[in-house]
Write a structure and sequence with these properties.
Layout lengths: L3 E9 L5 H9 L7 H6 L6 E7 L2 E7 L7 H8 L4 E7 L6 H12 L4 E7 L6 H17 L7 E3 L8 H13 L10 E10 L3 E8 L3 E3 L3 E5 L3 E10 L2 E2 L2 E3 L2 E8 L13 E3 L7 E10 L7 E2 L3 E6 L2 E9 L4 E2 L4 E12 L6 E6 L5 E9 L11 H4 L1 H6 L2 H12 L4 E2 L3 H5 L3 H12 L4 E2 L4 E3 L1 H21 L6 E2 H5 L10 H11 L3 E4 L2 E4 L8 H17 L11 H4 L4 H10 L3 E5 L2 E4 H15 L7 H7 L4 H14 L2 E4 L2 E4 L2
Parallel strand pairs: 1-3, 1-4, 4-5, 5-6
Antiparallel strand pairs: 2-3, 7-8, 7-15, 8-14, 9-13, 10-11, 10-15, 11-12, 11-14, 16-21, 16-23, 17-20, 18-19, 18-22, 19-21, 22-23, 24-26, 25-26, 27-29, 28-29, 30-31, 32-33
């Protein structure tokens, strides 16, 4: 069995000992940049590994300086758990609080607090600081977070902290089969290898040889090499820190950047607009206003955006609301992804977001989230989320392959949810787009109303052709929705389909006295004409120019009174039966029959004979043999 993988991220104020603590835990100095060595502070992300029995913990060391919070946010992507570092000699500081807020907004659920530098503070002061730390993390929603005293210089408490972190990592659920998503946080070039990207594999698995896409630019690439903490591997799973060597057109250092996402399938699409739930921090001092310009941090990307609020002008501190982000650059998040909003100027963290639609249609300020089911989509069960996805999609439906992305649920949960919802009326169309049961019910109503309207206005018609009914559905309806609705209406006994015409169950066309006389006149005309009937344009104008004539003609064919030989050529059905009998009686057994031979049995001109012969060919009465025909046995 392979080791369980998880990501541990550090957080905390500058100079509180995050990098030193990571070094004490792992033996790795994560300050890799020359400037970091010279200035003695962490500027960009650093990485190490903490391994124990049955678990491998990737450690992301983030900068604590307020000027590098954007780097901290990039590193926080994909954290399964966090290590908040607070120096015992200084206590809780501004970046302690901001980093803690960011962890809460990004919904990092597991937190351990390391009270560092205990060798620099006396016991009484350390006790006071620990009490303050507990109150601070409790206020941020981390009630159960343990506080552990350590010293990176003396080694006190390091082993206990290591054991606690590894135990917590073992509690992480096994990575489920899911869509591939790797937000890129670093890009560099290695001679002989080419472009390498690194990041936290937040979902799915990656293998050497895989074909992948880089969004939002949508560049195709192939994985030529894969490492997990410097070790060459053939496969990496969610919860791993990975370095991926990529090859492909446009895959160079200038074509790939932090903020890109490595994905697998074509269902992923970049978007310049996302619908989000917004929660403004209680102590931010900011009220988020409609149309406010903000910095959006999603995954490892940072982009500017305008906030369009639904149904309100502002969101006050400590409250939540819904809206859309009109982004100045596209992003490619998954539904359910958590992110952070920071003010444009001065720059500070003001709110957290969760993505409910991506890509999203443009929604107006009057949008009512409760009617769209956004809350159920984010916080409900798998079935709730998939039901909401189908509800949001409406009659347009949604391809099954896109539902894991649009619901934020793994494919296995989506499959179970679709099975459950199918029992409640949801169904895929012939084109593979799932629609909600309510959408199909609405389609049934549309069909029944249309048929009823025709029966009332034109009771002489047998109903509506199927094609005409399909046209009653909106152009944006999923292909095949009309057929789903028709199948359901027929299954419920509301409608019947006969010879391509849809009618109400039990309906029979009724003719007025005048229409009955017209029908009889047409019948008589063709019966009396025998095997040389008039073509439709030759009929008495008084007959053929009546508006009901085409419907009566269809009815006579349907009732077996007339047979249509070709377009605008009809014949009396009993007469045609006599013609067939004569042909069989006089010509059976003869080969290579030409039109002149058939005129022995059917004494009509070529003008009438040829349509009759063509009909007999189609019906199998005669069989073509080279240039002639023979009469079938």
């Amino acid at each position: 069995m392979s080791d369980r993988t998880a990501i541990l991220g550090t957080a905390g104020h500058i100079d509180h000992g995050k990098t030193a603590l990571v070094g004490a835990l792992t033996g790795v100095d994560t300050d890799r940049l020359k400037e970091e060595k010279e200035r003695g502070i962490t500027i960009d992300l650093g990485f190490a590994e903490l391994a124990g029995e049955g678990v491998r913990l990737g450690v992301v060391d983030v900068p604590g300086h307020e000027g590098f919070v954007r780097n901290m946010l990039a590193g926080a992507t994909g954290m399964d758990m966090a290590l908040l570092v607070v120096a015992a000699d200084e206590g809780v500081m501004p970046q302690t609080r901001e980093h803690l807020s960011i962890l809460s907004l990004l919904r990092v659920s597991r937190l351990v607090v390391a009270l560092t530098k205990i060798d620099l503070a006396d016991d009484e002061w350390t006790e006071l600081v620990e009490d303050d730390v507990r109150d601070t993390v409790r206020a941020a929603g981390f009630d159960e977070a343990p506080v552990m005293r350590v010293s990176s210089r003396t080694g006190e408490g390091i082993e206990a902290l290591r054991d606690r972190l590894l135990a917590l990592a073992r509690e992480r659920p096994e990575a489920a089969d899911d869509l591939l998503a790797l937000p890129v946080d670093r890009v560099f070039t290695v001679r002989g290898t080419g472009t390498v990207v690194t990041g936290t594999l937040v979902s799915g698995a990656l293998r050497v040889g895989d074909r992948v896409r880089l969004l939002p630019a949508d560049r195709s690439a192939r994985v030529r090499g894969l490492q997990v903490h410097g070790v060459e591997v053939d496969r990496a799973v969610a919860g791993s820190r990975v370095a991926v060597a990529l090859t492909g057109d446009g895959i160079d250092r200038g074509g790939v950047a932090r903020g890109d996402v490595v994905v697998g399938g074509t269902e992923w699409q970049p978007s310049g607009m996302v619908t989000v739930e917004i929660r403004v921090l209680p102590a931010t001092g900011w009220t988020l206003a409609h149309n406010q310009r903000v910095r959006v941090h999603l995954g490892t990307a940072e982009v500017m955006a305008r906030v369009v609020l639904f149904g309100r002008d502002e969101i006050a501190p400590g409250t939540a609301g819904w809206g859309q982000l009109r982004l100045e650059s596209p992003v490619a998040p998954r539904v359910g992804a958590a992110g952070v909003l920071r003010s444009y100027s001065p720059v500070t963290t003001i709110a957290g977001i969760r993505v409910a639609e991506a890509p999203a249609p443009k929604r107006g300020r009057a949008t009512r989230p409760e009617h769209q089911g956004f809350a159920e989509l984010l916080d409900g069960t798998g079935a709730d989320a998939v039901r909401a996805v189908l509800g949001i999609a409406g009659p347009g439906g949604v391809p099954e392959v896109e539902i894991p992305l649009r619901s934020g649920r793994v494919p296995s949960i989506v499959a179970a949810a679709l099975t459950e919802l199918a029992g409640q009326g949801a169904s895929p169309t012939a084109a593979g787009r799932w629609v909600a049961g309510g959408v199909i019910d609405d389609g049934v109503t549309t069909l029944v109303d249309a048929v009823d309207a025709v029966h009332e206005a034109e009771p002489y018609r047998p109903g509506i052709p199927v094609e005409a009914l399909r046209a009653r559905f909106a152009s944006h309806a999923a292909p095949g929705l009309a057929d789903l609705a028709l199948d359901r209406a027929c299954g419920d006994g509301l409608l019947v389909v006969e010879r391509g015409v849809v009618s109400r169950t039990g309906f029979r066309p009724t003719l007025s006295d005048a229409q009955q006389r017209l029908r009889q006149a047409v019948t008589t005309t063709f019966r009396e004409a025998g095997p040389t009937p008039p073509f439709i344009p030759e009929l008495d104008p008084e007959l053929r120019e009546d508006p009901v004539f085409p419907v009566l003609l269809e009815g006579l064919v349907r009732d077996g009174v007339l047979v249509q030989l070709e377009h605008e050529i009809y014949i009396d059905a009993p007469t045609l039966a006599d013609v067939v009998d004569a042909v069989r009686a006089e010509l059976a057994g003869r080969e290579d029959l030409g039109p002149a031979d058939f005129r022995e049995a059917v004494p009509v001109t070529r003008r009438h004979l040829l349509p009759i012969l063509a009909w007999m060919d189609r019906e199998g009465v005669t069989i073509r043999t080279g240039d002639g025909r023979r009469v079938a046995d």
